[in-house]
Design the sequence.
């Protein structure tokens, strides 16, 4: 078998997919019983080129390959320029028995090191895999656990989660552990799972747009009960109204759902829901809601009204603007 040196720059925020890849690489390279002798790991300022050279120059122990894992090196930022240059030079002559995994959240694509890895080795981006991939993963999990759940309920669960696979799986495992009768329902999801503040504000604004005052105020009440800050709720509510204005504007310019989702950088399904909401408002009404958010912010900062009450009044005003 012909061997060659490998270096992989692993980028992106999807820690789950990245960790899966790292573990698979370990399983492929490291021989059982000799793992510790052929594996080296360093993080942040522990990553020193002189130390790496010593590791690299030592031959594998009863194995064809050695694996080096480096995390958050700082080599792709200005702060460690000298070490970065030494590392880049070292990559030019890696022995064939070496595989290096470099785990970074982001990297300056203009840097010499980035360009060297791109031209001679590989760069892999780990981003959120998307709704359908997550649904497929959960369907398989439910099948393995003997749990019943329909597709509509799965979509409800995923769409109420942040784009973070680790978080989604953590909440999913809570569901599996606490549900009764071997079936996952919307009611179980609502009672067991913790939705992000962004998700709950999205749902709040959706209820406001539908004119469902009781449900909107109930959502707000639950957020306060879970100790969410009225200021944080206000900020996200204002942001949601601003997104609605942008969506309405882009739709008026002739853009379709996919184009709008790409431009605003939101999931396709979220834009579809927002489009249904904005049809209930005129541009003038959305502008008035944004002004009401600014006025509420001023009231909060001056202390002229109690914070919880301030945001409740804003919600009532928004409900009165529903078309």
Sequence:
């Amino acid at each position: 078998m012909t061997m060659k040196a490998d270096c992989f720059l692993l980028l992106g925020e999807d820690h789950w997919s990245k960790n899966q890849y790292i573990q698979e690489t370990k399983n492929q390279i490291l021989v059982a019983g000799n793992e510790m002798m052929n594996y080296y790991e360093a993080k942040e300022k522990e990553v020193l080129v002189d130390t790496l050279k010593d590791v690299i120059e030592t031959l594998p122990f009863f194995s064809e390959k050695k694996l080096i894992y480096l995390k958050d090196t700082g080599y792709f930022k200005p702060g460690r320029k000298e070490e970065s240059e030494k590392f880049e030079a070292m990559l030019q002559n890696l022995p064939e028995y070496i595989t290096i995994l470099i785990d970074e959240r982001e990297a300056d694509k203009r840097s010499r090191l980035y360009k060297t890895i791109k031209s001679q080795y590989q760069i892999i981006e780990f981003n959120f895999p998307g709704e359908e991939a997550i649904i497929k993963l959960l369907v398989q999990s439910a099948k393995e656990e003997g749990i019943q759940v329909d597709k509509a309920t799965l979509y409800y669960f995923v769409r109420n989660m942040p784009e973070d696979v680790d978080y989604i799986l953590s909440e999913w495992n809570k569901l599996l552990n606490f549900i009764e009768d071997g079936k996952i329902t919307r009611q179980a999801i609502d009672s067991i799972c913790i939705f992000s503040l962004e998700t709950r504000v999205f749902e709040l604004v959706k209820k406001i747009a539908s004119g469902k005052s009781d449900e909107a105020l109930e959502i707000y009440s639950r957020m306060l009960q879970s100790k969410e800050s009225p200021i944080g709720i206000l900020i996200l509510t204002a942001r949601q109204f601003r997104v609605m204005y942008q969506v309405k504007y882009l739709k008026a310019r002739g853009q379709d759902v996919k184009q709008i989702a790409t431009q605003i950088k939101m999931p396709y399904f979220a834009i579809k829901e927002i489009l249904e909401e904005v049809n209930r408002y005129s541009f003038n009404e959305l502008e008035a809601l944004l002004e009401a958010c600014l006025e509420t912010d001023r009231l909060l900062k001056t202390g002229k009204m109690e914070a919880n009450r301030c945001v409740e009044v804003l919600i009532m005003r928004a409900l009165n603007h529903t078309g």
